[in-house]
Amino acid sequence: MKRQAFLAAFSFLFCTSMAAQAASINHGEQYSACMNLVRQAPEDAFDTALTWKGLGGGEAAEHCIATALIAMKRYKTGAERLEKLADISRRPKEFKAQILAQAAQGWFLNDDLNRARAVLSTAISLDENNAELYVDRGHIRSTQQHYKDALDDLNKALGLDDLNVDAYVFRGAVHRLTENFDAALLDINRALDLNPAHGEAYLERGMLHRIESKNDLARQDWMRAIEQDPHSKTAQTARLNLEKMDVKN
Question: Which of 113, 146, 179 marks a domain boundary?
Fold first, then answer.
């Protein structure tokens, strides 16, 4: 589950809401610096956020602590802290839903899919018009092979946002797994129309071509998947598929 786009929104909301509290410490700037440090050196970000929290960093400092924990692969602890933060936060319910979505990502990375799904369901109850939440839950349900429920979520997401590329890719994958290959190809082609650089879409379309024994087309799509991000898990899967196809041939 790669759904992390909302982190940029956290930065804006925390920074703007804390600007009025700036005194000896500019908490808005501190939050931005802390979140940037999470991406570069999460251990240092964790230590910095703990100190900052003691100096009045509040919810923003706690969010940086939890995010750093997840970046340090302490998924369970990070997810638990995010759930607690959402529970005690005085911010709008839509904002709490975003915190819960990040907590669900932590549970997903911790291989606790049931907890991740449950947390996302709570998030959806707080913000039922957020397409991204349905995409996340649909992805988890698909991973658990609950394909009908996954399709319900992805259809809902696309009803709210018919330009959501990930929703098309995940729905295409579900159609492939349920052997509805024509619908799968329609979804994947739509995703690539919207984003011609989507590696996972090329990976999926390559699989569909391979099912139809269109090996040349499968090879082209898997090579494109690798080109988008050679170091990604998507690229790794594409390479494995190429190797299997070559060995079989």
Answer: 146
